[in-house]
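Comment thread on ticket #2218

A.B. wrote:
> Attaching the input chain for the structure job we discussed in standup.
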Amino acid sequence: MIRFIILLLFLSVFFALSLIMLPLEWLVGKINQNAKDRSSLAIVKFAFRVVLAISGVTTTVKGLENIPSDEPVLFIGNHNGFYDIIISYVLMKRPTGFVAKKEMWKVPILRRWMQNLYCLFLDRENMKEGLKTILKGIDYIKDGKSIVIFPEGTRNKGEQDLLPFKAGSFKFAEKTGCKIIPMTQNNTQYIFENQAPRLRKTHTIIEFGTPIDINSLSKEDRKNISSYTQSIIMETYIKNKNLI
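C.D. wrote:
> Ran it. Output below, let me know if you need it in another format.
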């Protein structure tokens, strides 16, 4: 419980400082958008590293060399816990937007940081608005920003290895031709979900798989890119699950 209280105190301080930092970031963006992108990324990555340290999370990172630093990609990941985003984001090499549920838009300061990082707010219940979000993400990728999406659609909390992947999650790669990076995380549900509101000192594993060039796949694999990618993540998840 002490970890959780310290975390709340840190977040309170960070959000208070954000009332100063966000206007400064806006001003920087008016002068130099690339500088704003770099500084927003650095600030959030620093804050997430502090969150992980306070929470007692250690992580074994595999396949970091598979993330290209000179081109945008689509990260496809499994989703067991809240910390999936925090753990993976500190490893991002370039401006990267996460696809988040629309409810996140209701949190003012958090929303502004997410907008600075090119996050997308997906309304899964409104097909028209969902399409607009996908088109916006496609534009982001064409502009050099990477995207992270969890195609299970919700946290499965480790109750089963993987939930079915939603095929629409792959439209970002299908429409832009960007590479897909399978991103597999193990053990993240044990940090918070299983004993909330307490935080438990936890070791996790994250592995970035070999980039998938959708254009080099067979016609059959392109047609079934969702199950093709899911099978890779499932294999990695089971392999790493046996190591913990």
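A.B. wrote:
> Thanks. Noting for the ticket: The chain is about 45% helix and 15% strand.
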